[in-house]
Design brief:
Elements (H helix, E strand, L loop, with lengths): L3 H6 L7 E4 L3 E5 L7 E7 L15 H16 L6 E4 L15 E5 L9
Antiparallel strand pairs: 1-2, 2-3, 3-5, 4-5
Length: about 110
């Protein structure tokens, strides 16, 4: 498989790791959109949120548990945003499920 995030999780491509366990890998985004911008990915390849099933959904709950812990560790006490783009028209550029944990600034809705 030629998946960028699978290669990052496997250590084949360098990244600035924030967290890792047997299911999840978290690292700083190379093009941050906020003072804190971390990507959280499952180590198992899931292409997008559209491919979450009863068999693989437990990792999503675990990712949100990790995101909450990281937000505390990274000082995002005033709030944070978690985003997952699903599909090309929604802005998904890497076909591997991932969540953006962003904070350290104010956000607008729906963009910004």
């Amino acid at each position: 498989m030629d998946c960028l995030f699978c290669k990052i999780a496997a250590g084949e491509i360098p990244s600035k790791k924030v967290y890792e366990d047997e299911q999840v890998y978290a690292f700083y985004d190379i093009d941050p959109q906020a003072p804190v911008h971390v990507l959280l990915i499952p180590k198992a390849h899931i292409a997008s949120a559209a491919e979450i099933t009863p068999e693989n959904s437990a990792v999503v709950a675990h990712i949100f548990e990790v995101a909450a812990a990281l937000a505390k560790e990274l000082g995002l006490d005033d709030g944070f945003r978690i985003v997952s783009n699903c599909g090309e028209s929604a802005g998904q550029t890497v076909r591997h499920l991932h969540f953006h944990l962003m904070g350290g600034r104010s956000f607008a809705w729906p963009a910004g």
